[in-house]
Amino acid sequence: MTTANVVKLGHGRKGLSGTVVAVGAAAGSPGSSDIQFDVELERRLLEIGLVEGAHVEILHEGFIGRDPIAIRVDSMRVALRRREADAVLVQIDGGAGMRRQGGRDVA
Amino acid sequence: MLHELPVRAFRVALVGNPNCGKTALFNALTGSRQKVANYPGVTVERKEGSFVTPAGRHIMAIDLPGTYSLRARSPDEAVARDVILGKAKSVERPDLMVCVADATNLRLMLRLVLELSGVGIPMILALNMSDIAEHRGIRIDVAGLARELGIPVVNAVAVTHDGTSALLGAIDGMLDTIGPAQASHWSEQSADEVRDAHHAADSMVARFVSSSAGATDWTSRIDALLLHPAAGIAILLAVLFLVFQAVFSWASLPMDLISGSFDALAAAVRSVLPDGMLSSLIADGIITGVGSVLVFLPQIMILFFFIILLEDFGYMARAAFLMDRIVGGVGLHGRSFIPLLSSFACAIPGIMATRVIENRRQRLATIMVAPLMTCSARIPVYTLIIAAFVPQQKMAGFVDLQGLVMFSLYAAGIVSAFVVAFVFRRWVWRGKSEPFIMELPGYKRPMLRSVLMGVLQRAFIFLRRAGTIILSMMIVIWFLSTFPGAPEGASDPAINYSLAGMLGHALQPLLAPIGFNWQIAVALIPGFAAREVAVGALATVYAIGGDADSLGAVIAAQWPLATALSLLAWYVFAPQCVSTLGVVKRETNSWRWPVLMFAYMLALAYAASFIVYQLARYLGG
Ligand SMILES: Nc1nc2c(ncn2[C@@H]2O[C@H](COP(=O)(O)OP(=O)(O)O)[C@@H](O)[C@H]2O)c(=O)[nH]1
What we know:
The structure holds two protein chains of two kinds.
Chain A lengths: L5 E3 L8 E7 L11 H13 L7 E10 L2 E7 L2 E5 L1 H4 L2 E5 L6 H4 L5
Antiparallel strand pairs in A: 1-6, 2-3, 2-6, 3-4, 4-5
Chain B lengths: L9 E7 L5 H9 L3 E5 L6 E8 L5 E6 L11 H10 L11 E7 L4 H10 L6 E6 L1 H6 L2 E3 L1 H8 L3 E3 L9 H12 L14 H18 E3 L6 H9 L4 H42 L4 H18 L2 H17 L1 H14 L8 H6 L4 H7 L6 H10 L8 H12 L4 E2 L3 E2 H28 L8 E3 L8 H35 L16 H13 L6 H7 L8 H9 L6 H11 L2 H13 L4 H11 L3 H27 L3
The site of guanosine-5'-diphosphate has 20 residues of chain B, from helix 1 and helix 4.
């Protein structure tokens, strides 16, 4: 996987826009030690349309700690918490120039 | 109809994602010929209705709960799955499924249609909201999609007069040739199968849906305001404020009418029937008891009017988004917000509204704290005591002291609900949280007709509760406050000699440390019927008429301030409502939760009253 411009969705800021490249286990551990939660999370993300290839954009951020976030997934809008959004890896649109908006890179 | 066809009602189930307009379509098909009940054993609403197709077929329609997949997470989704797979107790497997899709967002439903094609029931795909799709310049190749999926596909508009005619035609066409349902070969999809189905759905969207951009995106514009970190919160608070204003000001007239007519009815019964047990049971037990709960009907209807209006508009999901961090911080779900809001009118509709929460633990936690919200049955008690004990004066020139006390009682309820929820999530159900992932539907103009229909259904459910659980609880309370009757020549009010009176006297030593005299102890027993009944019971114990002002004068003269404050604290927490406990039993299908609720609320009430009383006495109250 190219690491340039690939970020965890949960680390993105308002305005980030890109294409989903990995969801769930393939995106690396979302950071919880609860396997059941991770499996459930992957399914839920997939069922609501966050699949590889989907186009996403962060539309809004919550007012406390910028959490949760509202995103556009192709033609629909979805709200989720950053912790959960971390299970989604996004390839940022438009090359390196957009990085500034896109938040931290994944190490 | 020219000739009667044999009446074998075909069963048609509506299936679809949440927010696809399924309820509106169901209403359009069945009109008012519908009934709402519960699936046995679970608390999911079961909506059925009937209609006749243009060809004269009798159809029994079932509206299944919205779902993204057949894999069941919530009780709602389990019901949808069981009915479709023919596993539901008491519900026959449908002959035909109408898959309802939001035409402006086809992809997810196409995925579900692919999943559903394995269950062996013939299907029709209805592209609902096609008016909105057209308006936005979205064009769907209906014939191509039908060929690809191998099922009939029709456009539908749930909210116009003839928006369902194509669907009705397709149902008739399908039922002409229908064979018996086949065995299901559905099994839960793995994550990779979900991915594959998505890609298949994507490719269909790419081939059959085209959209010309350009139409104004109202949803984005409205969201820019309503989800704005500062303005969004301000608007949410303003909306809540207006809703509560309406709930309390609009409801007061019908509430007066209801309590007035129940009083008149009770008086009429007393005058017609000879004095005795029967007259007392009907007038004091049944009529007054049920009336004391039914007075909340106007508030509940107004509250649900706004909740359904905001839900149909698309705002409730936004409210859940804005509140998620706050209620999520104590382990509840953004969606817990709506039930908790309803609980300010009455905990019963609030507890019923927790059905929208998918996760069982979050749902239980929400149920457990819902009665801590200050319901309107507490208001008569609060106003009685505040009017009698808190001087009507302004603090710092503009803050009304009585209002301030009232406000702090509300605040105490909210804060304690958060603390209790936190404790539950932290120590009772450790760890285990649930993803918060929720669709934010596009904004739509609400249709008054469907909003009113929703309100009437809520009202009806509440009335049925009042007719069953609440009525039986009232009879028990009446029995306790009536038997045994007063002896010959007794000078005290009859309630003193009853079981409730004995219980009150027996409990009084326990209540002495929190400053309750025996009159309060006795009045609290019938007060379990509904919180505000305690006011009437106090008047009975002090043997004065129902006039609240004279009761206020009596208690102001007889109670120390510490006792009054202690009783206020008691009412913030005490589980003084058997109807709520009964509904919790029903909704959770177990005695465990109502018992736990009763115990923790009682413990909190006692502790709070103890602290308040002792502190007030120490400070010289
Ligand atoms: N314009 C338009 N609005 C619709 C249509 N169907 C449903 N709606 C609206 O969409 C909103 C949500 O519909 P509802 O039936 O509650 O969705 P459900 O969650 O699938 O049951 C309501 O405000 C409806 O009035 C339609 O075909 N056209």
